[in-house]
Structure formats: C-alpha cells, structure tokens
C-alpha cells in the first residue's frame, strides 16, 4: 500500500519543474550553503563511471557495515521506491523520514528562490540525513557524469573511484571516450583516485589526477570468476570467495574494491578478512544479473552498448544452453537499436514493452530497429500480472533495457 506521504513525494519529484536534468552546481551549492554545507561534515568515498558504479558502491558499503562502521549509501536510480536510494547500514530510509527531509529541502529552496531539480533535492536530502545520523562513512554515487553532477559539491572526499567508462549519455557528456572520461574525472580532488589499469579512460584520468595533484592508484589485481554447482565465486591471490553478484565484468569492480580497501587500511581503517569475505557473500543489488530461480527469470538493467555486451557474455557463461525469452523496453536517449540487435538471437521469444516514462520508446519504434524480426517470435503482452506465462515454459526470461522498465514490472512477475 502506497502511503499518502509517499504519493506526495512522487508528485513533487516527478513534476515537470523538477523531473529534468540541469547540469551545473550553482543551484545546489547555494542551497547547501544556506543549510550549513552538511556535505563537508561527511567522510565521503565518491564513485563515478559509466557501468559498475552501483555494484562498487553497494559492495563497499556492505563491507564497511560488516566491520561495524555506520555507513551511508546514496545511489540511483531506484527500482520500486525513492527510499531505495538512501541506505543506512543497508536499511532504506523510511517514507516518513524521506517526506520530512524532501519537503524541508523544497521549502528552503522556495523561500530562497532557488529552482532545484529532482536529483538536486535528493542529493541535498542525502547529505542532511547522513549528517544527522552521524555516519562514519558515506558511499556516494554520481548521477550523470561527474564534473557537473550534483554530488560533486563534496570538496574533500577520502577517496574517488572511477569505474568502467564507455559511451553513454552522448547528448550531455560527449560522443567520445575521452570526452566522457573527462566528465567522470571531474569528481577528482586532491585525495587519491582509484581506477582499473585497463579502463578505457585511463589516460584522461591520469592527466586530470596529475593536474589536481591527486595520487593515482591503478587497480591491476588479476581476478577471475567461476560458477560451480550454481554458486558464483571470485578468485584472486589463490583465494576463492563466494560472491552474490553474478557477472564476468564484476572482476573489474572487485579490482577496484581491493585497491579501495587496501587504501583505507593504509589510513588506519580496520577491515578484516572475515568482514571482507562476508561482504562479498551477502551483498545484494537488484536488477544486476539478478536471477530468480523459482521463476526462471533474470533481471538486468543493462541500457548501454557496453552493458548489453556484458549481459550477453554473462548469459553465455551462466546459461549457455538455455532457450531465451526477452522482455525489453528502453528510453529514447539510449542506443536501443544497437542494443536489441546485440541481444536477440534466432528463435528467441521477444516482448517489447511500453512503460510509464516521458522518454519511453514505443514498442513499434523498437521493432523497426530490429534487423531480423522474421527470425524472432514476438509476444504481445496485454497485461503484466503473469508475464512469465506468456513465454514457453523452458525459457529463461530476461528483463532488460531500462531500470525504469524493470521497476514498473510487478515484483518477480
């Protein structure tokens, strides 16, 4: 049951005046100054990148929580509720508390004639809540880009982390890896920055870190994945750890985590092998290779070409001989034509979904982009309550293309 207060939260944040992207730090900087700059009271680890941010942030928060540190986690987007974006020791903020903070921030902005966006409101709420809760650490994920992202008002993070960089949001971040990497590297301050040694944006990040007098820490640990008796493992340094997030590309995220943990330990922050291992085993993040065994459904929010390629590799690794069914939806800012032609194979069953978002692409427009529609079996989903019953019983059903779309499907279908 959705509460009245939560409905008011959604109505405010999704109103035409709020639900937009306005890059730039002037508005949020002014508002935070009025509120006493709560972000400067926090021990922040700031994470930017194209893919992998959510996994890195969530795993790092889980490890620190296990060690006994009071840990805040701010991520985006959410699947089912705005409350998911704010976690304290793994627990979502309550609807009542979120309502209280959001309308306080909005009231302050109105009184001071500051026109702020949805993401700016949410970011200010995160800073205020984590300060009030006296967190030991805050893991802060950027929304879009880095340089002009609302989270980039943090002046002195403990550490910055740059995850995998690929082409996405070309309309706002640029159409080359170099341009996008420059935007992501905008979060770098004088504190160290961790990046994988094979990141496509490494050269740009190196240059920016040098200009900022920031120590560059290259993550180069050799990490691999194994899948044994339906259990996923991460292997490095001749050790094997059970890891609850599936995916071959997770090796890149684990490399970053290892170097991040090593740096924190070098600064006197205690993190035991046991709590590191338990973090890997117990971490959960929805819609990232999330397999629901009893329904034979897989949720993955892959929405750009790099992530779509990764999803295909993962399916070949974890489900090599399983017939596939797809539920696919996209927003218009994504390269959905490329995505569907990377995903679908001859004989696959496919349902194209229209979901509730101002930028959602109509199913017929997605269909026009498919290069071999006559070799696919299309399903017309008139309703989604029992979506899995629309597919052949032997199919693994994969929901992908947009986090927004997955979030609007009935939970676990």
Protein described:
The chain is of the alpha/beta class. Helices cover 36% and strands 16% of the residues. The protein has helices at residues 4-13, 26-34, 53-66, 95-111, 118-132, 170-173, 177-184, 202-211, 250-266, 273-282, 305-318, 336-343, 363-369, 403-408; strands at 44-48, 71-74, 86-88, 91-92, 137-141, 159-162, 193-196, 216-219, 224-228, 231-236, 239-242, 290-292, 297-299, 324-328, 349-352, 377-378, 396-400. The strands form three sheets. The protein has an eight-stranded mixed beta sheet with strand order 4-3-2-5-1-6-7-8, with helices on both faces. The mean pLDDT is 93.
Tag the structure with descriptive keywords.
2 domains, 16% strand, Protein-Tyrosine Phosphatase, Chain A, 413 residues, alpha/beta, UDP-N-acetylmuramoyl-L-alanine:D-glutamate ligase, eight-stranded mixed beta sheet
Derived structural class: alpha/beta
Count up the domains: 2
> What would the principal axes of the Cα set say about the shape?
globular
CATH topology of the largest domain: UDP-N-acetylmuramoyl-L-alanine:D-glutamate ligase
Rg from C-alpha positions? 21 Å
Count of DSSP-assigned helices? 14
User: What is the name of the CATH superfamily of the largest domain?
Assistant: Mur-like, catalytic domain
Please identify the oligomeric state. single chain
Low confidence ranges: none
Query: Which sequence of strands runs across the widest sheet?
Result: 4-3-2-5-1-6-7-8
Integer average pLDDT: 93
């Amino acid at each position: 049951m959705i509460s009245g207060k939560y409905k008011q939260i959604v109505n405010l944040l999704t109103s035409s005046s709020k639900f937009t992207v306005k890059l730039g730090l002037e508005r949020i900087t002014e508002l935070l100054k009025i509120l006493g700059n709560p972000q400067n009271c926090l021990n922040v680890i700031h994470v930017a990148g194209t893919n992998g941010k959510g996994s890195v942030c969530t795993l790092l928060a889980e490890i620190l929580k296990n060690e006994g540190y009071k840990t805040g986690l701010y991520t985006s987007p959410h699947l089912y509720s705005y409350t998911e974006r704010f976690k304290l020791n793994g627990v979502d903020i309550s609807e009542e508390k979120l309502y209280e903070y959001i309308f306080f921030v909005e009231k302050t902005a109105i009184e001071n004639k500051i026109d702020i966006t949805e993401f700016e409101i949410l970011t200010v709420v995160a800073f205020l809540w984590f300060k009030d809760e006296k967190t030991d650490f805050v893991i802060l994920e950027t929304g879009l880009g880095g340089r002009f992202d609302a989270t980039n008002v943090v002046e002195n993070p403990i550490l910055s982390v740059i995850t995998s960089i690929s082409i996405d949001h070309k309309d706002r971040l640029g159409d080359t890896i170099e341009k996008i990497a420059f935007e992501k590297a905008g979060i770098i301050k004088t504190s160290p920055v961790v990046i994988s040694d094979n990141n496509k944006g490494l050269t740009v990040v190196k240059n920016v870190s040098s200009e900022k007098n920031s120590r560059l820490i290259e993550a180069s640990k050799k990490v691999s994945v194994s899948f044994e008796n339906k259990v996923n493992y991460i292997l490095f340094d001749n050790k094997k750890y059970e890891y609850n997030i599936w995916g071959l590309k997770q090796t890149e995220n684990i490399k970053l985590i290892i170097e991040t943990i090593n740096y924190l330990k070098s600064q006197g922050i205690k993190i035991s092998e046991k709590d590191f291992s338990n973090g890997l085993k117990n971490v959960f993040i929805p819609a990232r290779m999330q397999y629901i065994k009893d329904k034979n459904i897989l949720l993955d929010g892959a929405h750009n070409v790099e992530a779509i390629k990764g999803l295909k590799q993962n399916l070949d690794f974890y489900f090599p001989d399983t017939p596939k069914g797809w539920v696919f939806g996209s927003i218009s800012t994504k390269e959905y034509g490329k995505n569907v032609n990377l995903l679908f194979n001859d004989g696959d069953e496919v349902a194209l979904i229209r979901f509730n978002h101002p930028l959602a692409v109509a199913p017929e427009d997605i269909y026009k982009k498919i290069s071999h529609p006559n070799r696919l079996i299309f399903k017309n989903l008139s309703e989604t309550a029992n979506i899995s019953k629309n597919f052949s019983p032997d199919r693994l059903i994969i929901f992908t293309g947009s986090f927004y779309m997955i979030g609007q499907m009935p939970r676990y279908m």
